[in-house]
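Hey, I'm writing a tutorial for new members on how sequence and structure tokens pair up, and I'd like a real worked example in the thread rather than a made-up one. If someone can provide the structure for the chain below, I'll link this post from the tutorial.
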Amino acid sequence: MIIGSTGQIGSELTMELRKRYGNDSVIAGYITGAEPQGELKESGPAALVDVTDRNSIEAAVTQHSIDTIYNMAALLSVVAESKPQLAWKIGIDGLWNILEVARQHGCAVFTPSSIGSFGPDTPHANTPQDTVQHPQTIYGVSKVTTELLSNYYYHRYGVDTRAVRFPGIISNVTAPGGGTTDYAVDIYYAAVRGEKFVCPIKEGTYMDMMYMPDALDAAIRLMEADPARLVHRNAFNVAAMSFAPEQIYAAIRKQLPAFEMEYNVDPLKQEIADSWPDCMDDTCARQEWDWKPKYNLETMTADMLEKLKARLPEG
């Protein structure tokens, strides 16, 4: 079951899991006001599941005999800063509910962490798997707490908890939802529409990024991994590419030479970006469960532009 199945990652994760395991084997958990639509609704079963309501989680787990929960419910970084209490309520109080249900019903739980779990005093280059985590955002604080709480339930109760620290996720399907790395999605939309892109992140700001197909594969592959090989659990660094705004701009210009970009830095987004790693060391993920991304900046750019051109009107 995917909790948050209509969200930025959850919607695509639900469809990928159905492709791999069969439509009827994957339950799309949703909240009132964010019901599944289109193919997500038509392709398989759904259940009303609110992370802040433990009874709704337990009812869905019992009714559908759930053995694995993908907990994708969270507010993204910039949104969380404007709603810190709600971010905690969803991210941490919600996780408590999920872990308690998982403990009682024998479910495995995947709850993603993020590069946002690191802070300004973390090594920025080749950020180690095990290092200082002193984030200065409520988003990051909740992600560190998520990692610790998940580890606690594994060591204390034997709940099979696993997680990755996602970098910025770039998708050609789902629209951005208030994240610091969303500029790296918006820029492709602007390019295909023939619009000048106004970049909110300053030149020279490197951040780890990943194309959605690799992100989905990381989440699924980790949950399929042999637990005997896992030294770490919550949460693995996973990386695919690291670039600054001028580099993604240059990659797009190779295919769309007329594309233009200018800078208008958003102070909050820049402050958050500056506190995050430039690039993470994902050696542990590669060694413990054979993690390996398929896309780099060039191959992702080619695929993004091809897919968006097929869907969007060009300028």
